[in-house]
């Protein structure tokens, strides 16, 4: 009989379950897991997530400001390019106007200079003709006088 009690004792003291043992420790371990999860969440994860959220907000603000600055810069760039283009066109137009004006002035000066030169040449030519006639006339008188003197000396 002893043997028989011994086998009951072995049956009672033998562990049951194996891998999935659902005795009283499972709910305790579940409660410990949930308790530690809340403690870690409160101590570690919440401050870390708050810091990450603050950093994300800061990055979003910085990106928004950078986008606004870039948009303003592009608008100013377009505005000043338009102004520069208008200024270049106006400068080209002014340059062409002044070139034409100076060309007309130069042509007028050239015409007046040509007229002055033509008048001067005509006057000088006329003076030369008059002087030539006077010189030839005086030469004729001198030649006549010298001829008569030579004839007088020869005849005398």
Roughly what percent helix? over 70%
Give the class from helix and strand content and strand pairing: mainly alpha
Oligomeric nature of the chains = single chain
Give the number of DSSP strands: 0
Runs in which pLDDT lies below 50 for 5 or more consecutive residues are none
**N-to-C span:** 214 Å
State Rg: 63 Å
Q: Main beta sheet: strand number and arrangement? A: none
Q: Which term fits the overall shape?
A: rod-shaped
Tally of separate helices? 2
- Give the ordered list of helices and strands: HH
| Mean pLDDT figure | 85
Beta-strand percentage? under 5%
Folded structure, characterized:
Belongs to the ATPase B chain family. One of its GO terms (cellular component) is proton-transporting ATP synthase complex. It is a single-pass membrane protein. With 156 residues, the chain is mainly alpha-helical. The protein is built from two helices and no strands. The longest helix has 131 residues, at 25-155. The mean pLDDT is 85.
How would you sum up this structure in a few lines?
With 156 residues, this protein is mainly α. 92% of the residues lie in helices and 0% in strands. The protein is built from two helices and no strands.
Q: How do the strands and helices of this protein lay out in sequence?
A:
Elements: H1 2-13, H2 25-155
